[in-house]
Amino acid sequence: MTNIGNNVYEATLSVSGSGNIAYKFTNGAPTVVANEENFDFATGGCGVSNGFNGFNRTYTRSGEAETLEAVCYNSCAACVLGLEELELGNVSIFPNPSTERAFFRTENPNGYTLRMNIVDITGKTIRENMVVNTTVFEINTQDLNSGLYFLNVVNERNETATYKLMVQ
C-alpha cells in the first residue's frame, strides 16, 4: 500500500470477472487477528457476517476496470480524499520522546477551535476529542505504553494535521 497523504493509503489489485468480493483491511501483519478491522460491517450497511463472529466488507464487481471509493478503516463511512491540511503555523512537540508528559505547541494563526485524538500504530484511538484551546497544550503520556503514537488534529472545518509522538 502507498500512503498518498493524510494517512490515506491506496493499493492496486487485479481481479478478473464479475462477482461478489468479501474483504477486510488489516493494520499490520495480516496473520495477526488483532490487526484486522473489527467493525460490524453488516449493521453498518457495507458488509456481511463472516460466520466466525466477525464481519467482512463486500463489493460487487462489474467485470470492467473500476476504481473503488476511499473507505475509512474500521468504518462504513466514506473517507474524504484531498482534505485541506490544517494551517497551524509553527508546531512543536516536546519533549519528544516523552515519559510522563509532552507539550503540543502551535501558533494557530487562524484561531481555530482544535480537537486532538491520540492514535496508536495499529490505528486504535487511545484518546479522543481533546480540546486544544491554548497555544501550548499538555498531553499526559504517563499512562501510555512505550511506542509511536499519532496526534491527529482537526478544526471545525474538518481540516486535519497529523504529528508523531514517541513515548518511552
Tell me what the structure shows.
The chain is mainly beta and 168 residues long. The chain folds into 2 domains: 2-61, no CATH class; 91-167, Immunoglobulin-like (Sandwich), CATH 2.60.40. It contains 1 helix and 12 strands. A 4-stranded antiparallel beta sheet has the order 9-8-11-12, with no helix packed on it. A 3-stranded antiparallel beta sheet has the order 3-5-4. The chain has a 3-stranded antiparallel beta sheet with strand order 6-7-10, with no helix packed on it. β1 and β2 (8-10) form a beta hairpin. The two termini are 29 Å apart.
Question: Could you give the topology of this structure?
Answer:
Layout: E1 2-5, E2 8-10, E3 19-23, H1 41-44, E4 47-49, E5 55-61, E6 91-94, E7 101-106, E8 114-120, E9 125-132, E10 136-140, E11 147-155, E12 160-167
Antiparallel strand pairs: 1-2, 3-5, 4-5, 6-7, 7-10, 8-9, 8-11, 11-12
